[in-house]
Design goal:
It is a single chain. The protein is of the alpha+beta class. It is 40% helix and 22% strand. It has 8 helices and 7 strands, in the order ααααβαβββαββααβ. The strands form 2 sheets. Strands 1-6-5-7 form a 4-stranded antiparallel sheet, sandwiched between helices. A 3-stranded antiparallel sheet has the order 2-3-4, covered by helices on one side. Strand 5 and strand 6 form a beta hairpin. Helix 5 packs parallel to helix 6. It is globular and about 55 Å long. The two termini are 29 Å apart. The relative contact order is 0.15.
């Protein structure tokens, strides 16, 4: 399956699901919805997590997590190298280090580190519906889009997504 990215109007459907726009959305993503066996009556955030989410298993290699997120924003030419201290990430021509402890806690250290690296352009947020699973789903959107969604829909956004914080980790 190819990587899908929602447009801003599709993001609005999470918070203002108008039937005509939903019908158009379902038609546009019919092949993907069939592939994942998604029904139209599922909550929109579940559908979005399958169609647009970056999925990270708690056992994932940290370098693979960077590759998954980087695949979502190919215009930034993301690459990663493993080092003795963690990861060296190339993002949009600049080099950044993410220090790792080489423990289970590193999945979110990697996610937090990459989120910080991309923070001028993008933001990663967790789909709340995936939190109690051993596989978490994330959505990467332009930072300006998150700001606009937060401004327009406030608590609706925080009811579907969690901002990546220092405390956030797999349960």
């Amino acid at each position: 399956m190819k990587i899908n990215k929602p447009d801003f109007n599709e993001c609005i459907l999470l918070f203002e699901p108008e039937q005509e726009a939903l019908d158009s959305f379902f038609e546009k993503y019919k092949e993907e919805m069939d592939y994942y066996s998604l029904e139209k009556d599922l909550p929109p955030d579940i559908i979005f997590s399958y169609l647009f989410g970056v999925t990270v298993d708690w056992r994932e290699y940290d370098s693979d997590i960077i590759k998954y997120f980087g695949g979502y924003i190919p215009e930034k030419n993301v690459s990663v190298k493993e080092t003795d201290y963690g990861l060296n990430v190339l993002y949009d021509g600049d080099s950044f280090d993410i220090k790792l402890s080489f423990s289970g806690a590193d999945r979110y250290n990697t996610i937090r580190g990459f989120n910080e690296i991309i923070s001028n352009d993008y933001e990663i947020r967790l789909f709340d519906s995936s939190f109690y699973s051993d596989t978490h789903a994330f959505l990467i959107l332009p930072k300006t889009w998150w700001n606009e969604l937060d401004k327009r829909f406030g608590e609706k956004v925080s009811g579907i997504f969690t901002v990546i914080t220092e405390e956030l980790d797999f349960p």
